[in-house]
Structure prediction request, 330 residues.
Amino acid sequence: MSAKDRLTDMGFGLGWTLVCRVPESWVRWAFMLVADIAWRRQGPGVQVLEANLRRVTGQEATGKQLRALSRAALRSYARYWLEVFRLPVISQQRILSDMRAGGEEQTAFAHLAAGRGVIFALPHMGNWEHAGAWIIARGAGSFTTVAERLKPESVYERFVAFREGLGFEVLPATGGGSRFGILAQRLRAGRLVCLPCDRDLTANGVEVEFFGEKARMAAGPAALAVQTGAALMPVTLWYEGDYWGAHIHKEIPVPANGDRRGKVAAMTQQLARVIEAGIAEHPEDWHMLQRVFVADLDPARLTPVINAASNAADAAIASNGIAPAPGSGS
Prediction:
């Protein structure tokens, strides 16, 4: 392990040990300070964030307004990390009482109670880990997700241990057996699967219209719904002051007509529309510091994606072959 990797691992280790022991007001001040410093420096991640937010605000927003929004987004992102490190010591009572959930909450949990699988498809908004802890605390039981492998491997292992400690079942994005096959099994058994979907890490993504431009999103959620009959329900997350907000949206049904590829594409476009509306309502809580719009993607990466696009959906819904959905978390 390189010196940089050791420092990274040490930093995450301190996060889950020290941050839990320091008064929340102290660490909150520190995290906000770090966010403001990063915002002022305008490094590559901040520049990508602002490019993404420019699509949300439109060209009518001034540079000053965009900068103010990116600062709020970085502070929201810092809050996410603060809560990740403190979540093991946040009481179940607070996890439940401070969540402001709405929409199709009762419908989703009724599906699970009746033995029908449910897919929650989420953008990188708010606090995904808290939402998962809320689902479990609410009595829905464990759920399954896929985690992107981080570097160094020790940091990935820390995240897996953290999420498993909260009650999640975590499948690795690479290595091991078929993620799609296991996810399909869980859904057919009437279980819940949660997958972030607003960033495509593979050549199996679907091109959609998103904030008036072309973007690529994960095919996995729609493909699983087509393959298993599970309910595909988008979820958007945000912060409401000191509280957490969540909206479970109506199920995106599988189209009655068309081939499997067309159904996956149509459902993913509907998913993009729902996510787009949620982000537009709470843009400061969209923690997207990676490129998602086709115009911003590296042409060297995009070329093989385009070449694979004609077979992407078929590959996604083959029982033994889907590239993994994006990793969980923000």
